[in-house]
Design goal:
This protein is of the alpha/beta class. The protein folds into three domains: about 5-25 and about 225-320, Alpha Horseshoe (Serine Threonine Protein Phosphatase 5, Tetratricopeptide repeat); about 30-220, Double Stranded RNA Binding Domain; about 330-490, Rossmann fold (3-Layer(aba) Sandwich). Helix content is about 35%, strand content about 30%. The chain has 15 helices and 15 strands. It has helices spanning about 35-40, 60-65, 75-85, 110-115, 195-220, 235-245, 250-260, 265-280, 285-295, 310-320, 350-365, 370-380, 395-400, 460-475, 480-490, and strands spanning about 10, 20-30, 45-50, 95-100, 115-125, 125-140, 145-170, 175-190, 220-230, 335-340, 340-345, 370, 405-420, 425-435, 440-455. Helix 6 (about 235-245) packs antiparallel against helix 7, helix 7 (about 250-260) packs antiparallel against helix 8 and helix 9 (about 285-295) packs antiparallel against helix 10 (about 310-320).
Length: about 500
Amino acid sequence: MMKISLFLPLILLSGCGNYFSVRVPYRVPDMPNAAAARPALSALYVTVKAPAAAEESALGSLAGALLNKSGPDFSPAALAGRAAAALDRPGAKVCAWRVDKSGSAEDGFAPPLGPSGLLVISASRPSVSSRKEERVSVYYDKNKQKQAVKNKVWAYSAALSAEFKLYTWPAMELLDSWGDTFTHAEDRLDNTKDSGDWYAESEEKILSAVTGRLTARYAGRPMDRMRAVFIQKKDRESEEAARLAQRNSWDKAVEIWLRRTAAAGSWRDYLGLAVAAELKKDYAGAAAYYRQAENLSAGDKDGARIFWGQIYQDLEMASSTRPAAGCGGGWFGVKTALLPFSDETSSLDGPPLVRQLVYERLKAGGYDLVSLEETDAALRRHGFSEGGQLAAAKPADIAKWLGAGRLVYGNITDFGEIMAGVYNRRMVKGSARVWDAATGKEIVFEESVVKVNTPKSFVGGMFGQLARGLAERIKNKPLAYESALFSRQLTENLPNLPK
């Protein structure tokens, strides 16, 4: 029995005796030619193209910190993850997301992921400003006289510009292209808040604006369509079918309309069948009934009141919203081993800490990982105890020892801190190499995290730096913040599952 209890409170009596109206819920995308984009959205791969962080000299870092012009910390991974989560919904599927800093037109991860569509977001580094401005507020005094009061405020603002391109894959046919600048502003009574810190607190609002636009454009906005069901006047059966439909007994109403159409009923009966099918989400059946109703209603003034074109457009869009396709290739099903990191530094605790953080990031990103303990034990059995020794072994042999189909090598080139009065420079730099057993190919990418702090107080800065360093050494977690940031930046170069 077909029950559509969801729509019972949505059926409205129009007040007229020859028809009643029914609300049919849809999600209507804002993009042009939305139906053509549906197959691409059914298995989507999201990439954010972002410029790699420019390497700064020690002198340049110091100058930027002293002038408070180092710029905000921008997280393209947060943008990619939020976009993927927003588009991963019923009727659609996101295979993976990643951040692409290579500048290359081709993405080497797309073939093993096997998506049907590719959404490329090209984002520039956000601009942030804070400036003193005058605001005028108006109020009425007790004598009802208009008064104006001038106030000085600090106006903080941020802007993120991005371009969006939706392609089919692998044909790379451009389906949609658009761009926008997303902004957020706030008035504060003073400028004690650093503009970079203010942006970090406000970034969520800007990203929410981006994902809101993406959802509306591709997943669609909730929208109700009104459908009219006409009643044949002075026809007891037609009136009975209408009463049943209004009481949510659509299955019984359909029985009457089917019986009448079998006996050459009127276009109103076909219209009732069409609305019932549309409510049931049988869009192909609804379209066939609507066509019959339209043809038979020719010359009838009631039939001329129906927006047939809008109906067919809605049905075409809805019928293209197929169940989400699976993403081929099994990228995340490949057993992956994160090998001990080689390093060119004097730090004993730094590289192992970074490796542990990278492991946790990969696990959260959806990878099937060989545990670090199993990896290290298997390598020791073959005479390898340090990452720097692994260059002497063939990747295929290491993969065989570990039962892995993918290896991730890491190398730390810089890991340290420079403290000189009010100048504090903390850096973690390195690279990763991903080797795939199925293809024998490898992908290499580098990352760098450099943080400079210049406290206003010489004594306070020195004591703060020493206390922080001591706490990190006690916990065996040197440069903990920079290491966490480095591990995030390193793993965002690889595909990640949406959350």
